[in-house]
Design brief:
Bound molecules: adenosine-5'-diphosphate, acetylphosphate, magnesium ion
Structural class: alpha+beta
Distance between the termini: 38 Å
CATH architecture of the largest domain: 2-Layer Sandwich
Number of helices: 17
CATH class of the largest domain: Alpha Beta
Largest sheet: 9 strands, mixed
Number of strands: 17
CATH topology of the largest domain: Nucleotidyltransferase, domain 5
Strand order of the largest sheet: 3-8-7-6-5-4-9-11-10
Radius of gyration: 22 Å
Helix content: 25-40%
Length: 510
């Protein structure tokens, strides 16, 4: 484990908390606004987005062919430029950076983009800009190969494209100066459950947590730094993955280790993917016509990093990730939970500092190996679970890919079983989300076979059709024993969740 320094407790303690304020420029949407279908924005009426169905990414249909396609549609530059204040939300994942640009009131999604493949040799840009009036597409780029070496580069490519003067008629903003606030998904918030306005001090505190989220915090903070340079007019606010899990009870967040040391060093389960689980909880409650406080969900966020969450009465009761995002399910480059003795047997000098880790991180060789050189990368030589799946199901299956696929299913059903019991069998929905959960039809089907015994029944045809394009897709069979136990695919939206929280609970900037 990381050799936590003497001052570690303060690092994990609450950072400066953003206070709700009434003097913030934007009107805060009231509960009555929530759910309203028709919102007027600066004289432009939009039917697409409202705060309860916060605009999701990739909503435009893509009928383009080929990997480097741009589709240009009719646009009205004056009206597009009319959006003179915006929110940018940035989600630095382990294999991607996702971006959503919203109008300042959060009612219109202007741009949805991502740079994917940061853990592979091919990095690509997807970029869709929307016309606010009817949500039609102003500009669409799909799978354009970009030269990007890290998260910060990905941000620069995105902002470069967004603000480039070459495409005057496709710009949704006059300039980057129109971005009033940038929301950053920061994975580890330590003991800080509230969003934080980022300044020099809070930046440093969050960066001090980087060793506890080695694939996330530091890269995300480098984006914050780049943002401060490239978008100097924008304020920056951190939204934490860990915040959703502050409701986990003590006997679940406690590790059975020396309690005084654990207390001093704040060693406990924190849990991550919380922005996604918060979005999922609200979305599922709405879909089921229930109050958030009444829904029980077993949710699976399966992406480059994968986790499960047990949601009781709309709140996190347990989750599979822990002190760091390494615990629990395996991922693209992560081992997930293994016997803690394994690194000592695999490496002769496991607690020596890694020279391979980024120079800003203090990671042991064991942490480096388990975070960056394990998972699908170690077993199959690729970090892409889509490729693992393809090879596992090929006419001549790749043996290691088949093992990796089955291993993932095995670990996932372990959490489903555990969480089903924790919820006393009262589960409204089993939810699949994240890149693999949304697109991995075969993975869902394989998990589905095991969970039939709990009353969840997946309809094969619905499962085949669900591609993570809609906000919610029900894939459970209707009728039968599983009646009432839904299986849903939710296109999660961590950026939308950050922006929603910003609009609903504006921080005080001073
Ligand atoms: N069709 C597919 N089937 C299974 N997995 C897929 C498919 N398409 C993408 N994926 C997986 O989704 C992962 C990305 O998930 P995502 O949640 O976007 O990751 P992150 O946010 O961690 O960067 C990719 O690494 C890839 O393995
Ligand atoms: C917490 C985590 O693992 O996030 P991601 O899946 O985006 O890498
Ligand atoms: Mg992610």
């Amino acid at each position: 484990m990381t050799d936590l320094k003497d001052d570690e407790p303060s690092i994990l303690e609450s950072c400066i908390t953003a206070q709700p304020s009434t003097d913030f420029h934007s009107p805060v949407l009231s509960a009555d606004d929530v759910g309203s279908d028709k919102q007027s924005t600066r004289g432009v009426t939009s039917f697409r987005c409202n705060i309860s169905e916060f605009p999701n990414r990739n909503t435009a249909t893509n009928d383009s062919q080929g990997p480097f396609n741009c589709v240009h549609q009719t646009k009205i530059p004056q009206e597009i430029m009319a959006v003179d204040s915006a929110i940018l939300a940035i989600n630095a994942g382990s294999s991607s950076v996702k971006f959503s640009l919203f109008s300042r009131d959060g009612k219109n999604l202007l741009v949805s983009a991502d740079v994917k493949g940061l853990t592979s040799s091919l990095t690509t840009l997807n970029y869709t800009a929307f016309f606010t009036e009817d949500g039609s597409t102003i500009e669409e780029i799909e799978g354009q190969e970009v030269e990007v070496k890290d998260h910060e580069d990905a941000f620069k490519v995105f902002v470069g494209h967004l603000t480039s003067d070459d495409r005057e008629d496709k710009k949704v903003l006059e300039s980057g100066d129109k971005i009033e606030v940038t929301c950053h998904r920061i994975v580890h918030g330590g003991a800080s459950p509230e969003p934080l306005v980022i300044n020099d001090e809070t930046y440093k505190r969050l960066d001090d947590l980087s060793d506890l989220a080695p694939l996330h915090n530091h890269p995300a903070l480098l984006i914050v730094k780049a943002c401060m340079k490239v978008l100097p007019k924008s304020k920056n606010v951190a939204y934490f993955d860990s915040s959703f899990h502050t409701t986990i009870p003590e006997h679940i967040f406690t590790y059975p280790v020396d309690p005084s040391l654990a207390k001093e060093k704040k060693i406990r389960k924190y849990g991550f993917h919380g922005l996604s689980y918060s979005f999922i909880t609200k979305t599922v409650a709405k879909h089921l016509g229930k109050k958030v406080d009444d829904v029980n969900i077993v949710a699976l966020h399966l992406g480059s990093g994968a986790s499960a969450c047990c949601i009781k009465g709309g709140k996190s009761l347990d989750t599979s990730m822990g002190l760091t995002p390494l615990e629990g399910l395996p991922g693209g480059t992560r081992s997930g939970t293994i016997d803690p003795s394994v690194p000592f047997h695999l490496l002769s000098n496991s607690s020596d500092m890694s020279s391979k880790a980024a120079k800003e991180l203090h990671l042991s060789k064991a942490e480096q190996m388990l975070n960056k050189e394990s998972g699908w990368k170690a077993l199959c030589g690729t970090t892409d679970f889509g490729e693992v799946t393809k090879k596992a199901f090929a006419d001549q299956p790749d043996e290691m890919c088949k093992i990796a696929f089955d291993l993932f299913v095995d670990r996932i059903i372990g959490y489903i079983g555990s969480y089903y019991v924790k919820l006393g069998g009262k589960v409204d929905a089993l939810v699949f989300a994240g890149g693999i959960g949304e697109k991995g039809e075969k993975l869902r089907a394989a998990v589905g076979k095991y969970v039939e015994c709990l009353g969840f029944q997946i309809d094969e045809s619905k499962n085949g059709k669900a591609k993570g394009k809609e906000t919610v897709e029900a894939i459970s069979a209707e009728g039968g024993e599983g009646e009432g136990k839904k299986v849903l695919v939710v296109k999660t939206d961590e950026q939308g969740e950050c922006a929603r929280q910003l609009v609903e609970n504006p921080p005080k900037f001073d």
